[in-house]
Design goal:
Elements: H1 3-27, E1 33-37, E2 47-51, E3 54-58, E4 61-67, E5 73-87, E6 90-94, E7 101-109, E8 115-117, E9 130-131, E10 135-146, H2 150-156, E11 160-170, E12 176-186
Antiparallel strand pairs: 1-4, 2-3, 3-10, 4-10, 5-6, 5-9, 5-11, 7-8, 7-10, 11-12
Length: 201
């Protein structure tokens, strides 16, 4: 074996354990969560409901959270940041959606089939908020859109809506990361028809 090969092997014998240790105990010790759309039978169409005496449209949008790190992540918050409505008259982007959202509910589907609705107000009980390391979890996002709002009015005359959600993921070190996921869905009610702004009789 020549001297150059010996040098290369010597360098690799030092770097390889260091790289493995960094990947497992530094980079890998943190949660590394990505979100993706997961269309499934648990998705629902838009439904006319009344929440806290407020007429809204709501649907369940299924997404998958994949944690590639060994450290667990905690779901800290969820919000709707943008909506794009498309229809026969063109395309409308609604960036200021805060006043159009009555609330957003987040659910986690456990591996045993049980469903847990996340309550962000209880910081001592993290039921449904944990994304274990090196695993996937199925989440349901349920936006409640106020019918008599800018977004609600746009949806009533549109054919399709693209919703962008932000989810905050917190690690054990307190670092919070924002992850985004887009959900594209037809603007149809549970009967397959157009959304109507009138209250259901």
């Amino acid at each position: 074996m020549d001297i150059n090969a010996q040098i290369v092997l010597g360098v690799l014998s030092v770097l390889t354990p260091a790289i493995i240790a960094y990947y497992r105990y530094i980079w890998g010790a943190k949660p590394h969560v990505s979100l993706s759309r997961q269309a499934s039978v648990d998705d629902t169409e838009w439904r006319d409901v009344v929440s806290d005496d407020v007429p809204v449209w709501s649907k369940r949008c299924m997404i998958r959270a994949t944690n590639r790190g060994w450290g667990e992540g905690v779901l800290a918050d969820v919000s709707l940041t943008e909506a794009v409505i498309s229809g026969s008259t063109g395309r409308a982007v609604i960036e200021d959606v805060e006043d159009s959202v009555h609330k957003i509910v987040l659910e986690q589907y456990e591996s045993n089939g049980e469903l847990t609705r996340v309550d962000f107000n209880h910081r001592t009980d993290f039921s449904g908020q944990i994304i274990p390391g090196r695993s996937d979890v199925l989440l349901g996002i349920l936006p409640f859109i106020v019918r008599d709002s800018e977004l609600g009015e746009a949806m009533s005359s549109g054919q399709r809506v693209l919703l962008t959600f932000n989810i905050l993921i917190e690690g054990k070190d307190g670092v919070v990361e924002t992850k985004s996921v887009e959900v594209s869905t037809p603007v149809e009610n549970s009967a397959g028809g157009e959304l109507q702004r009138e209250d259901p009789s």
